[in-house]
Structures are given as structure tokens and as C-alpha cells.
Design brief:
The chain is α+β, with helices and mostly antiparallel strands. 38% of the residues lie in helices and 14% in strands. It has one domain: NADH Oxidase (3-Layer(aba) Sandwich). It has helices at 3-9, 23-34, 53-61, 91-100, 104-122, 135-142, 172-175; strands at 45-50, 80-86, 126-130, 150-157. The structure holds flavin mononucleotide.
Amino acid sequence: MDFFELIYKRESVRGYIDKPVEREKIEKIIEAGRMSPSACNAQPWKFVVVDDKEIVSKLAKKLYDPLVSGINKFALSSPAFIVVVGEKRNLTSKMGEVIKKQDFTSLDIGIACENICLAAASLDLGTCMMGWFKEKSIKELLNIPSSKKVHLVISLGYYENKEPRKKIRKDVTEIMSYNKY
Ligand SMILES: Cc1cc2nc3c(=O)[nH]c(=O)nc-3n(C[C@H](O)[C@H](O)[C@H](O)COP(=O)(O)O)c2cc1C
């Protein structure tokens, strides 16, 4: 598939069909995350794949919040999730973060997550990155040490075949300039 076709195909999928995702595909998708660039090649991530039905259902309830306009209700239909945990950085990139006042971990994880979502789209799987979740109870559910941060949870699954939605994006004139701000 042409790169730009893939870019337009990837969208946040908020509804899945009842079909498990093959582990072979999950592993390909994680490979796309593993190959992502990161500051000083620190690779400060761990991808916890959840595809066990019982745990999936418990996890979905920690993403869905009926009190906040039903946010992430669609997660209840997702057959799998990738929980993205931040890991220790290497010393050089830690120093870089402090000296340059940059949050390299979030940058690195954002890049890896997009690679993951694009890889999934290339395999006709839908994803949605979710930043709204009950972090503490997800850590308890998945035995993630309390000292670590869950940055994102990505839903993953098959969905009804349909045309991608029209993308709502700022005009290029608003987000790009040449040679000066
Ligand atoms: C860091 C991050 C957090 C997000 N959190 C949520 C979320 O909790 N729930 C949700 O439905 N979508 C979430 N999204 C998806 C965005 O709403 C979506 O990417 C944006 O509206 C653009 O639409 P598109 O992904 O379909 O192109 C998140 C996206 C990102 C990058």
C-alpha cells in the first residue's frame, strides 16, 4: 500500500466486530513499535498486549467512564488492547531531558504508538489510542509496578469494512510556514 494511502486509512476506530486478533498479526504490529526511533535509542517502552477475554473485559471497564460523557464506551467491543508503559531511559537521554527540558519519553512513546497504529491499519486492523483511563486500577489489573507510568492504551481489532472518515484537520496554512514562524 502506498504510504499516503495508509496515512489516510488510519483513523481512530471506535467499534469492533467480535473476532479475535491473530497473535501473528499482533507480533507484527509490535515489531513496528519496536523499530521506532527514540532519543538516544533509549526505547523507553513496554507493550503489554491484552488478548485474554476475561482480562480484556476487565480492562475495557477501566477505559470506559460513564461519568465523563460515556468516554471510551467503544472499548467494551475491543477484542484486544496494547497498554503502553514508560520504562527507564538510558543515562544520556535522561541527561538530555533535564538539560534540554524535553519530555523525551512521551515523544518516543508517541512515535512508537503511531507506528503501531499504522502497522495495524496496513493489516486491516483498527486502533484507537486512548489517553483517558483509570491508571491505578489498570496497573493493579496487569501487575504493572506502581512506580511506572501508563502513557496510552491502544484498542485493537477488526471492524466493519467502510470508507475512512473524512479527516478533520487544520488547514496547512495554519500549521506550516517557510523560513520563519
Ligand atoms: C494521545 C492521544 C490520546 C487520545 N485519547 C483518546 C481517548 O481517550 N478516547 C478516544 O476516543 N480517542 C482518543 N484519541 C483519539 C483522537 O481523538 C483522534 O486521534 C483525533 O480525533 C483524530 O482523529 P483520527 O485518529 O480518527 O484521525 C487520542 C489520541 C491521542 C493521540
